[in-house]
Amino acid sequence: MATRPGPLTEWPWQRMGNFKYLVMAPVVVHGAYRVMNKGWGDIDLAYSLILPSLALRMIHNQIWISLSRYQTARSKHRIVDRDIEFEQVDRERGWDDQIVFNGLLFYVGYLAMPSVRRFPLWRTDGAVATALLHAGPVEFLYYWFHRALHHHFLYSRYHSHHHASIVTEPITSVIHPFGEHIVYFTLFAIPMLSTVYMGNGSALVFVLYIVYIDFMNNMGHCNFELVPKWMFQVFPPLKYLMYTPSFHSLHHTQFRTNYSLFMPFYDYIYSTMDKASDELYESSLKGTEETPDLVHLTHMTNLQSAYHLRVGFASIASKPSDNSEWYMWTLWPLAWLSMVVAWIYGSSAFVVERIKLKKMKMQTWVVPRYNFQYGLTWDRESINDLIEKAILDADVRGVKVLSLGLLNQAKQLNGNGELFRQKYPKLGVRIVDGSGLATGVVLKSIPSDAKQVFLHTGTSKIARAVAMALCGKGIQVIMNRKKEYDMLKSQMPENRASYLKCSSNDITKIWLVERIDDKEQRMAPKGTVFIPISQFPLKKVRKDCTYLSTPAMKIPDTMQNIHSCEVKPPPIAACRVNEPLLASTRFFWRVTITEYIYIYIYVWFLYRTGCREG
């Protein structure tokens, strides 16, 4: 929202939510009526392109969103090295409003101008006229309108809404108040209406002109430089005819320079080009390779988790994984395809997020494998190869600590990373699994006046550590599985083992659990407190019991670039995963609470103190 919102700030359908697409119902109904009465032959070329062109624009924009967010996480060509605030994410959710608006106007124009119905597919003279009219009147009028928008009166009422985004994304380009978009459409309509009245308009030229506008808008608002230098070397005048992301980025950081739409020559003519434009382009293109201090190596969970990645769909990633939208089933083919592609071509881990804690740099790398693949015995070797490759890559790059997340640390896979520690004893990177701090968080979750706890399983590293610590405090730990009880007792000193008890009758109301099925949950007494000791959240079966969250800690105020969960410092809001990006269903967004916190802070202590994990 602008600083002092003026008239026509809100979109007419802003309060309709996703039902805003119903405003396009007249187009669908009109088309259906014509088909039912006169058949498909009555649908002319111009009318038949209205809805498909809107769908094409949606796909085009989503591709840019995915590309930009992925490149921002991994690319060395970043322009502004700052984090994206979640207010910006919320503010930019309505990027498709202008597509709906344009669709309506195209439909109105179709009804108002009968000549449009006789449009041919292509006319070269119309394409040339469109290009010249854009370079002339459109660019000229936009330049001066844009400068007017930076006058304090219009800026505070309208344009400040757009400039609230310092770190731009492709969709930032279309985030304006409704009133601004009316003017923009009027400007872009100049070439289209002119060709209509000159009689040389064509359907494909209209579509390609809109694609050009979307392409340049999206490209110019990327936060990484992607325009190769050779283009300007081959054709030097191109620098006056096409801007670059770094050129427009200066407009969002300096505000009073680089006003041009897509063609910078008006900034050269009126001396408003930022003097740092060429220098920033060169430095951004050259880039700086970032060497993280810490790396968290994780993986995807179920097939739908791909949509919650940074490169996924914002509307899906903005909701917890267990609250799937009704239309998710239609995306299953895409999910399967992504899994197959990752399985065949996923030869290494990829970067999905960069995080900063003061001077310490951290990255999240993802192994391109899903949960079910970790359960395939014949695929374990290839998964271990991927993990090993990531570890060696981190070692070569000078990473100090690498934490293994989720199933990457499974005992049956590599024994919490012990396989790699033994295979490469001279590794410079320290491999950890975060169990030490997780144990401390679980212990902190147990009521201070507790005298007994029930340990559902004692096979994991965290479970053994928790049991050992509780027995050391004189708290009785009850187990009902004899084999696990004997194994755990054999690892304890005698003075602690006396507090370990195997019984199926003495069941307390404090349960420490990893994975527990519905039947076992119903065996718990009324009022039981279930405390998870793993990163996987529990299914809430009982309404008369209390379920604590997975091990969690507060994120420090100084931590930047958190994209996995909405942060309202200092606590994490666990109820919602916001759009940017990385919120991979039950893993990425739950891991935000467990591994993003306790592993990153844990390895920070390791890094600072030089201690090794026990």
Automatic annotation (TrEMBL):
Residues 136-272 form the Fatty acid hydroxylase domain. The keyword Amino-acid biosynthesis does not apply. InterPro entries: CER1-like_C, Fatty_acid_hydroxylase, Sterol_Desaturase_Related. It is an enzyme of class 4 (lyase). Residues 453-570 form the Very-long-chain aldehyde decarbonylase CER1-like C-terminal domain. It is a multi-pass membrane protein. GO terms for biological process: lipid biosynthetic process; response to stress. One of its GO terms (cellular component) is endoplasmic reticulum membrane. The keyword Transport does not apply. It catalyses: a long-chain fatty aldehyde + 2 NADPH + O2 + H(+) = a long-chain alkane + formate + 2 NADP(+) + H2O. Keywords: Endoplasmic reticulum, Lyase, Membrane, NADP, Transmembrane, Transmembrane helix. GO terms for molecular function: aldehyde oxygenase (deformylating) activity; iron ion binding; oxidoreductase activity. It is found in: Endoplasmic reticulum membrane. Its EC number is 4.1.99.5. Pfam families: CER1-like_C, FA_hydroxylase. The chain crosses the membrane at residues 99-116, 128-145, 182-211, 331-352, 587-607. Homodimer. Belongs to the sterol desaturase family. This is aldehyde oxygenase (deformylating).
